[in-house]
Amino acid sequence: MARKGYLFAPKVNRVSGPAAEPVTVTQAKDHCELLASDTTHDAKLTRYIAAARQRIENETSYVLMTQTYTLSFDSFPDFDKIKIPKRPVSSVSSISYYDADNVQQTLGTDVYGVDTSRMPFVYLKYNQSWPTVTEQHGGCTIQFNAGFGTADQVPSILKHLILVQVGSWFYDRGDVPDRDWSMAYDRLWRTVQDSAYP
User: Fold this and answer.
1) Crossing angle for the helix pair 42-59 and 156-171, nearest 10 degrees?
2) Average of per-residue pLDDT across 12-17
3) How many CB atoms sit inside 10 A of residue 122's CB?
4) N or C: less crowded end of the chain, CB within 10 Å?
5) Are 22 and 65 in contact (CB under 8 A)?
6) Strand, helix or coil at 72?
7) 3-class state of residue 167 by DSSP
8) What would the pLDDT profile of 19-63 be if each residue is shown by its tens digit?
9) Nearest to 70 by CA among 55, 56, 82, 52
10) d(CA 49, CA 54)
11) The whole model's pTM is what?
12) pLDDT (tens digit per residue) in 105-114
């Protein structure tokens, strides 16, 4: 019988990235006070937008646009819950493992459930237990989808955080060393950290 508690799984990998960014180049131009018709900096702004989103996702548990991840660990835990260290989680696609005969299997959904609340986790259903496995590196894998969804569903404060970062990179490319662009980003970031977003 599994004990009450969580497994904080050790390794997360992104399987597929977002189909689009939460902020458009047109919105970035407006923030940087560039003319919408000026295409001179489009490629640069596109890179900055992607990099700013990646910074937020790498430094936090937030996933902005829908993406697919895997969560891997060597064997199922003694605990009855496995924490998913990304949010918001929309669904778990599958849980795979190597059984006692070292054959890869897919865990049935009658064994586990998924809680997609603010701190998402996979849990054992009533009177169920994790299967016996052949323990090996990364032998158990949870594949899940995370992200707010479309750009319209991404909280405005997170989109503004991207724009603040894009603006700082655009106007300070190393030639204005005394301008502390990080202050605006950090002030906004503290608000995000203290928020109750999913």
Assistant:
1) 130
2) 94
3) 24
4) N
5) yes
6) strand
7) helix
8) 999 999 999 999 999 999 999 999 999 999 999 999 999 888 899
9) 82
10) 9
11) 0.85
12) 999 999 999 9
